[in-house]
Write a structure and sequence with these properties.
Blueprint: E1 5-12, E2 16-24, E3 30-39, E4 43-44, E5 47-48, H1 51-69, E6 75-79, E7 86-95, H2 105-115, E8 124-136, E9 139-142, E10 152-163, H3 164-176, E11 180-185, H4 187-195, H5 198-203, E12 205-210, E13 215-221, E14 224-231, H6 235-246, H7 250-260, E15 272-273, E16 280-281, H8 282-308, E17 317-320, H9 329-337, E18 341-343, H10 362-373, H11 385-401
Parallel strand pairs: 1-6, 6-11, 12-17, 17-18
Antiparallel strand pairs: 1-2, 2-3, 4-5, 7-10, 8-9, 8-10, 12-13, 13-14, 15-16
Helix pairs in contact: 1-3, 4-10, 6-7, 6-8, 8-9
């Protein structure tokens, strides 16, 4: 019997921990077979502040997903965010040494190594090196240079880094929960796997994941990542503003935000919202909520401008994450940003796809889908094509070690 290929994604957020387990079938499709959600503990703005509490929340989420799936998950792809995440663009250049100037996999590996050779402080580590384009003998815009002929190969990459202490604490929390860590992944990149089509990335689009502790932004142009950022304003800031403005507990403020909050004054209906010692309607609540939403959208606009130089993204903006569900959020973003805005939900199919059909699960589903791309799927064939593919995979591994 063939071994089941089980992949897990773990979204460790400030307000919730979500685990998504999927199974990769022989034809390469993915079925979601388990989902588990638990209240988050021990984290603040995506950073672990209590190792034991975080581990307990992670264990609860993973255990619930495993019970639903009916199978354990040995390791997971974990989303890592927080104010310590930064990004930059870099480039590298090498001379092609292959026979007759033909560019091989070893050349692309060398040029990517050259591009990632940036000066970082000792407390930082590289999480992602994402190729934006390759340049062969001055010709730009090349996506896959292997097999081409040239004497000079350049690579332009987008590098994402994080504070080593914070990433290590997150890994420790996951391991203490009894699960291994396959890879740390930027949540915006994971969410993009779940909610964006390849055509969206090709056209040019910005993904904005509004979470509980941070808001993650990823801008795609010509099918590649052009820019990423982690913003310090999130859905929790709206909750805190309500709690301070109305002098009520955070739990009550969160409930009021979810039930009555509105991101646009024009959309806010005049129906009563409960508040202590005063009779307040949704318009007065909007007076608290809207300024914080405008601050968030201003930061998003600045990041998009930084990525595009002021050019309009034809694909507009896709909002996802729990914060995107607030009433009036899409209209507010469209008015403020001046581009088409739509809600992003996971593009999953089969299995429990209906269970995760919400922006709340975009990152967890995306982490699972990201992991599934790392799983090699044999191609059924009577002439041994599957064996040939395995041989090619081994060759690639060997070339990466050179």
């Amino acid at each position: 019997m063939a071994r089941r290929r089980i992949v897990g994604g773990l979204d460790v957020g400030t307000t919730k921990v979500c685990t998504c387990i999927g199974e990769v079938t022989d034809d390469g499709s993915v079925h979601i077979i388990g989902v588990g959600v638990s209240p988050s503990q021990g984290l603040r703005r995506g950073v672990v502040v209590d190792l034991d509490a975080a581990a307990r929340a992670i264990h609860e989420s993973v255990a619930a997903a495993e019970q639903m799936a009916g199978t354990p998950v040995e390791s997971v792809y974990v989303g890592v965010s927080g104010p310590h995440i930064t990004s930059l663009n870099s480039s590298g250049v090498i001379a092609v040494v292959g026979a007759k100037g033909e560019i091989g996999p070893e050349d692309t590996q060398r040029v990517l190594q050259a591009a990632r050779a940036v000066k970082l402080s000792q407390d930082r580590e590289i999480l992602h090196v994402l190729p934006r384009e390759f340049i062969v003998d001055g010709y730009k815009g090349i996506r896959e240079p292997v097999g081409m002929t040239g004497v000079r190969l350049e690579a332009v990459v987008h590098i994402v880094t994080g504070a080593a202490s914070h990433t290590q604490n997150l890994v420790k929390a996951v391991q203490r929960a009894g699960v291994g860590v396959s890879e740390l992944v930027l949540p915006s990149l994971a969410a993009a796997e779940a909610v964006l089509e390849p055509a969206d990335k090709e056209m040019g689009v910005a993904l904005v994941d509004i979470g509980g502790g941070t808001t993650d932004v990823a801008v795609f142009t010509e099918g590649r990542v052009a820019h990423t950022a982690v913003l310090p304003v999130s859905a929790h800031h709206v909750t805190n503003d309500i709690a301070v403005g109305w002098q009520i507990p955070l739990a009550q403020a969160e409930e009021i935000k979810v039930q009555y909050g509105c991101a646009l004054r024009e959309v806010a209906a005049v129906r009563q919202a409960p508040a202590p010692r005063l009779s307040a309607n949704r318009l007065s609540l909007a007076d608290i909520v809207v300024p914080r939403i405008e601050e968030l959208l201003q930061l998003v606009q600045s990041e998009i401008h930084r990525a595009t130089g002021g050019e309009v993204l034809p694909g507009g903006v896709v909002l996802t994450g729990g914060g995107a569900l607030m009433e009036g959020m899409l209209q507010a973003a469209q008015q403020y940003l001046g581009v088409p805005v739509r809600l992003g939900v996971p593009l999953a199919s089969g299995g429990l796809a209906d269970v995760v059909n919400s922006p709340l699960y975009s990152t967890a589903v995306g982490l699972m889908q990201y992991g599934c791309q790392q799983v090699e799927v044999p191609v059924p064939s009577a002439n041994g094509a599957a064996w040939g593919r395995l041989v090619e995979r081994v060759k690639q591994w060997l070339s990466e070690l050179l």
